[in-house]
Amino acid sequence: MPKLIKLTGDTAQWADDVFTHVGDDDALPEGDVILSLARFQAEGEILLSNSRRVGVRVEADQEVEALAYDLPRLSVVALAFPKYRDGRAYTSARLLRERLGFTGEVRAVGDVLQEQAGFMVRCGFDAFEPADGATPEVWTKAAHRYRHVYQRAADNRQVAFEERAS
Amino acid sequence: MKAITANRLIDGEVVFWKAGAWVEGFGDAQLFGEGQDAEVEAVVANGKAQPTVVVDVYPIDLAPVDGGLAPISYRERIRALGPTNEPTHGKQAVGGEVIEALRHAAGAARSTGRVDLIRRK
Amino acid sequence: MYLYDPIDREFLTDRSNEFRHQVARRLAGELTEDQFKPLRLMNGLYLQLHAYMLRIAIPYGSLNARQARRLAWIARTYDKGYGHFTTRQNIQFNWIKLKDAPDILDALAEVDLHAIQTSGNCIRNVTADPYAGATAEEIDDPRVWSEVLRQWSTLHPEFSFLPRKFKIAITGALTDRAAVKVHDIGLILRKGRDGQIGFEVIVGGGQGRTPYVGPTIRSYLPAEHLLSYVEAILRVYNRHGRRDNIYKARIKILVAALGAEEFARQVEEEWGKIDAARANLPASELARVRAAFAQTRFETLPAVSEAFEAARAASPVLQRFVRNNVKPHKQSGYAIVEVSLKAIGQTPGDATAEQLEVVADLAERYSLDDLRVTHAQNLVLPHVKLDDLPTVHAALEAAGLATANIDLASDIIACPGLDYCALANARAIPIAQDIARKFADPDRAEKVGELKIKISGCINACGHHHVAHIGILGVDKKGEEFYQLSLGGSGAEDASIGRILGPGLSADKVAPAIDALVDAYLNIRAGDERFLDTYRRVGLEPFKEAVYAQAD
Asked: What would be one Pfam family of this protein (chain A) (predicted)?
């Protein structure tokens, strides 16, 4: 079974990845699946009513708001980084968490590197398919490098000015 | 005539390929003549395979000038010499024949100095 | 000035530890250059022609003596004894080694300096009026808001991988010494109808390949909404800025493509969805930041200083210095003193370690430990008592820092150009030196009056040539260095983009062309119009003729 890094609280660990990424032209396997936005919009309803768990993969140029009404029934939203320096998924993650109230798994897929772990965690990602051989230990460390943060984000960490006031 | 140049990773110093090593002086650079394109490509590939030693490896065109050889490109002459506003800074500070030849070279074919610029794009 | 507290200091420590770790991974081959490059850029480290260049942040151009001394020490210890001030109020060192960079960041952190986000596709140094807190013109101190934005934008997790770099500038005075109209976001402090403080918000100004004077997308934003509104702007840009072509990736392209109205609509729509209470700065924190800039150490002095008047009467040199380099201060008995880094024949914007130490001492003794950097690559001692002005002038003169040429023809902005920069097509420094020598005679320079000449060695326009009275752009014409002149640009409140004068000139023809332009101006000018005003009155033709209609 393939593995991914899952963040639970402050710690990252290996977890079994029970979801299969299914391409638009692939036959649907048994079990939990992650579909493209287009395929989900076409077939998602049927799959969900079969009581299997469904996730959606959102590309960098797709708007995550398109899933607004479906989110309560989705287990995973996978946000793609076509290249690590394409920062659109950070916005998508924050919107999923802070505006759309998504409480399922927000997974980083694509060109996912440990040097960006801290930013990802702050934006609300809690699962990662690393492209650079990173381990959960490395991920935990990278995500907690900074003792203080200066702005609010999806992680609800106490901001510097709140620390000062307390 | 060509030489192969790069920047050293650890300190950014401009360096030139010489028989398996990277040297700092343009005058010490290994020269590649007509018909040695395959060797040039091999060296560049070799350089790219040393990412912890050098970055940005590429060949440069040279032409004869009074007193020696100089890169055709103005930019490469500055890389081989140092900044023109401060003659005591950079490689030019050591002086000597090679430096003088570089200093007096004039004209250029292409200011970026990259021989394979068009093919790269 | 804003003094770092333990939280700010721990942040710098964590940052420099992170970078040390990243450098180690790069040297060990665990990171490719492609993966490492944005990481080192976000710590201000460029690979240039001869070595690495480190760009150190000077937030809104503000330094104290201890920091200036540390910069001098870094110049001596890790570089070749000098530094270069930039058009974004930062300082650059040209001869840095990658292996020393982590130690340098540690040394900077000890005096509350850093190189965070001085490059990369993130929010860069927020620049501001260098006369902030000293000028009577300001509605509010732009440093307060610059510091607020600086903290908010530091390692912002959502906005650290934007389509391209992002530059913000703020002015508190209507006289714009921060070039706000050619920034990605320009903020002008304004008084609202209710007497409260707010901002005029300009988005999509910029230079480079496609220069724009930015449109105002909101004429008045109540100040307490600054962070939520800027967040809305950044989010629209992060989502919709182009990522397919680096030459079309700035926000100015998005604003131009959508049109200012539609862009503003999208920002307002996004802003409407943001939880303002969560996004804006609490009043208590704003008060804390504001208190850092409250100036309580002014003395009560008469408007006229007899000692100063006597010294001035006795010294034509001091008179000239005061005429050009000294500006009125809001507090009676004080003055704002510009320190020119444009000595004739020197590299514009450079200061030696010794000069930095002189200026540090002067700032500490005579300027309430306050030193500024301007976007014209000069320095400012913002709070000098008139009583002390003769002493300060003498010390500057002894250090080669008293050239009385602020805003005159020899006060040239020049980027490092092909002498240092890997992006350049042509050299800028020797051109600046040639032109400065033409105006070495201070009488001639003063006769010509205000003339802002700015030189960029490539289209990236770091020398701000688009907004120069006479702009000079270095181009590569068949491998030779050629220079394209433009006229009539301005980076001030009367912002305009310069118009190209004619075909490019070879290097040796540039300074004579400037001479010809100035002679033409002196012949045509009405009254005491500036060069810029004459150009705006008569247009390009007379100047074009002066340069190109020559028998040769």
From this structure: DUF934
Alpha-carbon gap: A123 to the closest alpha carbon of chain C (Å): 6
The minimal CB distance from C38 to the residues A63, A85, A122 is found for A85
Other Cβ atoms within 10 Å of A27 Cβ, number: 6
Chains B & C: contacts with CB separation below 8 Å = 89
Q: Are C415 and C400 in contact (CB under 8 A)?
A: no
**Percentage of chain C with pLDDT > 70?**
99
User: Measured between alpha carbons, how far is C129 from C284 in angstroms, rounded to an integer?
Assistant: 25
Considering only the beta carbons, identify the residue of B51, B86, B110 that sits closest to C32: B51
**Segment (H or E) for C266:** helix C260-273
Contacts of C349 in chain B (CB under 8 A): none
Domains in chain A, CATH or no CATH each: 4-165 (3.20.20)
Distances (CA, A) of B112 to B57, B79, C414, C477: 13, 11, 21, 12
Q: Looking at the complex, does the CB of residue B72 fall below 8 Å from at least one CB of chain C?
A: yes
List phi, psi (to 5°) of C496: -155, 155
- Nearest-neighbour CA in chain C from B36: distance (Å): 25
Mutate to test the interface with C, among A61, A64, A84, A90 (most CBs of C within 10 A): A90
Q: C494 Cβ partners below 8 Å, 6+ apart? A: none
Per-residue model confidence as pLDDT tens digits over C458-516? 999 999 999 999 999 999 887 789 999 999 999 999 999 999 999 999 999 999 999 99
Report the amino acid identity of residue B92: Q
Chains touching A (at least 3 CB pairs under 8 A) are: C
pLDDT in tens, A98-144: 999 999 999 999 999 999 999 999 999 999 999 999 999 999 998 88
Whether residue B52 and residue C27 make contact (CB cut-off 8 A), yes or no, is yes
Whether residue A115 and residue C281 make contact (CB cut-off 8 A), yes or no, is no
CB-CB contact of C396 with C362 (8 Å): yes
Examine the predicted complex and report whether its ipTM is higher than 0.95: yes
Rounded to a whole number of angstroms, the distance from the CA of A87 to the nearest CA of chain C is: 4
Residues 283-342 of C with CB under 8 A from A: 284-285, 288
Q: Is the pLDDT of residue C552 over 70?
A: no
C470 CB burial (10 A radius; 0-12, 13-18, 19+): buried
DSSP string for residues in C399-465? TT-----TTSTT--EE--GGGT-TT-SS--HHHHHHHHHHT-SHHHHHHH----EEEESSTT-TT-G
C112-156 pLDDT, tens per residue?
999 999 999 999 999 999 999 999 999 999 999 999 999 999 999
- CB contacts under 8 A, A 71-90 vs C, are 84-88, 90
**Position A51 confidence tier, pLDDT thresholds 50, 70, 90:** confident
Which residues numbered 267-286 in C keep a CB inside 8 Å of some CB on A?
A: 273, 275, 278-279, 281-282, 284-285
Judge: A87–C161 Cβ closer than 8 Å, yes or no: yes
CA distance A74 to A32: 11
Global pTM value = 0.96
Tell me: pLDDT of B106 over 80: no
State how far the Cα of C448 lies from the Cα of C441, in Å rounded to an integer.
11
DSSP track, B10-73: TT--EEEEETTEEES-GGGPPPB-TT-HHHHHHHHHHHHT-TTTEEEEEEEEEEEETTEEEESS
pLDDT band at B79 (very low <50, low <70, confident <90, very high): very high
* pLDDT level of residue B109 (50, 70, 90 thresholds): very low
Decide if C157 and A148 are in contact by the 8 Å CB cutoff: no
Across the A:C interface, residue pairs with CB atoms under 8 Å apart total 99
The answer to whether A and B touch (≥3 CB pairs < 8 Å) is no
